[in-house]
Structure prediction request, 228 residues.
Amino acid sequence: MKILVVSATALEITPLLTSMNISAGGSFRFHSHTDGPLHLDFLVTGIGMMHCTFHLGEALARGSYDLVIQAGVAGSFDPAMPLGTVVNVTEERCGDLGAEDGDQFLDLTDLDLWDEEQFPYRSGTLCNPGSVPVSYINQLPQVRGISVNTVHGHAPHIERIILKYRPQVENMEGAAVFYTCLNRSQPFYELRAISNYVEPRNKENWELALAVNNLNNSLLALFSQLKE
Prediction:
């Protein structure tokens, strides 16, 4: 089975790379590792949807994969979700693509610039069909995500985005992976570990190390299952 693991930063998958004797390096790096029946390629794209779309598109143009897995950390809008929880993001939206009109945020559909049913969208949402069933991933909590270029840290804007989309998690690359993979009929999953809550910015409340550790342990467990 050939798998492409996509991460915005080397930090998010360093424990996994270290366990495979791979030097993490910086952005835009590509590494490979073979473990029994699994051939694993690792792509570090850089942060944000623009970087992710370009480098993922390049990787998929160079070779074919049975599965793409996006691995990273995320913020949670749900205070009941424990920090460190690893989730399966099954829906994504672009959370800041549009225009401001006073206190309102208008997305492309609101502006009549995009048909919310235009492929690969369904009612304005990018949905993962889960075309390659994986029992380990199916046991993880399934959540709705938004992808943004600027993470939310202002209380009125946080409230506004919650009322508009009812997201559970926020990240900076997920929609790019969804859009690219859906357009290429490429099976994929997005796995995120919760490092912080979406609130006025306070890094003292973050649990980044816990999230990275849990994410990487989940990836190792997933690969162990896929080898069986």
In short: The mean pLDDT is 95. The domain at 2-227 is CATH 3.40.50.1580 (Rossmann fold).
